[in-house]
Amino acid sequence: MPERPTTTETPARQNVTFPSAGATAHGYVALPPSGRGPGVLVIQEWWGLTGHIADVADRLAAEGFVALAPDLYGGSVAHDSEEAGRMMKALPVARGVDLLAGAVDHLLSRPEVTSDTVGAVGFCMGGGFVLYLAAVDPRVSAAVPFYGVIQGELPDFSGLRARVLGHYGEQDASVPPEKVEELRETIREQTGTAPDLRRYPAGHAFFNDRRPAYEPGSADRAWRDTVAFLHERLG
């Protein structure tokens, strides 16, 4: 039997701990107004589990989902891009995927979760982890990377069971158009299904309303399509 989570705060907004990757992991859970709904992971940018990521979880909860944002940095938050880069590099991809698999375990064990698969939405580093996780975990049925940064070679997508909806900025030097097309063709060749990878007149981090690159028109369109996609895939 999985360990019961430790919770604080109000029933609708909880800081939780749960077993993951042989250790105790931490995260933030937001529940929908009904108290029940399909489960969605929210995977952090390279900055850490910031207020922005918690706000995304809150917004998903308002749309009817049980949203879990796992803390991949164990409580640390970067204060500048140099520190964020060091923290990202200190988290091996395999370790991050193990931690996220534990978060899927926790999410599906919660009595409030009505789905038997989960969605995963991630940003920057977290967008890359959405793809790494979905490539190896068939319990992820909806994968939504926002400007996902892949660290190194693309994963093997031959085991991918999720549908993929990706959001990328046309002026994003971190994920240039040729990388997006390489991702599209790799997934299509290895799975037989082309992912839905969309481009927007924006740069990197265009969805983050706490960063200078925020582009509200692109962010709003991507959000509406993401919510509809998650409901379609998860209920």
From TrEMBL:
Claim: Nucleotide-binding is one of the keywords in the record: no
Annotated GO molecular function terms are: hydrolase activity
Q: Does the keyword Translocase apply?
A: no
Keywords (alphabetical) are: Hydrolase
Source species, domain of life: Bacteria
Q: Which InterPro entries match?
A: AB_hydrolase_fold, Dienelactn_hydro, Dienelactone_hydrolase-like
Tell me the ranges covered by the Dienelactone hydrolase domain, including all copies.
Answer: 27-232
Q: What is this protein called?
A: Dienelactone hydrolase family protein
Organism expressing this protein natively: Streptomyces similanensis
